[in-house]
C-alpha cells in the first residue's frame, strides 16, 4: 500500500523574497518571582526593548510588551524567564495587527 507523504513534503516553502507587512504585537505577561528580588528583576527587565513594568506585588508582576514580531515576543519571554529570581513569565494577552493600523484614525 503506498504511503501518502505528509503535507510538508508536498508543499513548497514560501518564497523568501515576499515582503511581510510590518506588524505590531502587544502582549501582557504575569511574571511570578521571588518577592525579595523584585527591584533587581525590575531593573534587569528594564533592559528588554519594548517592555513596560506596570505593577508588582507579593511576587507577581504585570508587564507589557510591544514588539515587531511574534518571534520577538517569545524571545522576550525567554529573556524574562532567564532572569535570576523569576519563577515563570506567562503571556496572558496577545494582540497583533498591521503596524499602519495602529496610527489609523478610529472610525
Structural summary, described in words:
This protein has 107 residues and is α+β, with helices and mostly antiparallel strands. It is built from 4 helices and 4 strands, in the order H-E-H-E-E-H-E-H. It has a 4-stranded antiparallel beta sheet with strand order 2-3-1-4. The radius of gyration is 19 Å and the shape is elongated. Residues 5-10 have low confidence and may be disordered.
Topology:
Blueprint: H1 7-10, E1 23-33, H2 38-45, E2 51-57, E3 60-67, H3 70-81, E4 86-98, H4 99-102
Antiparallel strand pairs: 1-3, 1-4, 2-3
Q: Per DSSP, what share of the residues sits in E-state strands of 2 or more residues?
A: 35-45%
Shape: elongated
Class by alpha and beta content: alpha+beta
How many β-strand stretches?
4
Q: Helix count? A: 4
Helix content range: 25-40%
Q: Within the largest sheet, what's the order of strands?
A: 2-3-1-4
Order of helices and strands: HEHEEHEH
Amino acid at each position: 500500500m503506498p504511503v501518502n507523504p505528509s503535507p510538508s513534503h508536498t508543499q513548497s516553502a514560501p518564497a523568501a523574497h515576499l515582503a511581510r507587512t510590518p506588524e505590531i504585537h502587544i502582549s501582557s505577561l504575569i511574571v511570578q518571582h521571588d518577592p525579595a528580588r523584585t527591584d533587581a528583576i525590575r531593573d534587569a527587565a528594564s533592559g528588554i526593548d519594548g517592555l513596560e513594568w506596570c505593577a508588582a506585588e507579593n511576587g507577581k508582576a504585570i508587564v507589557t510588551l510591544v514588539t515587531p514580531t511574534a518571534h520577538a515576543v517569545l524571545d522576550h519571554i525567554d529573556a524574562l524567564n532567564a532572569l535570576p529570581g523569576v519563577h515563570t513569565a506567562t503571556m496572558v494577552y496577545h494582540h497583533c495587527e498591521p503596524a499602519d493600523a495602529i496610527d489609523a484614525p478610529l472610525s
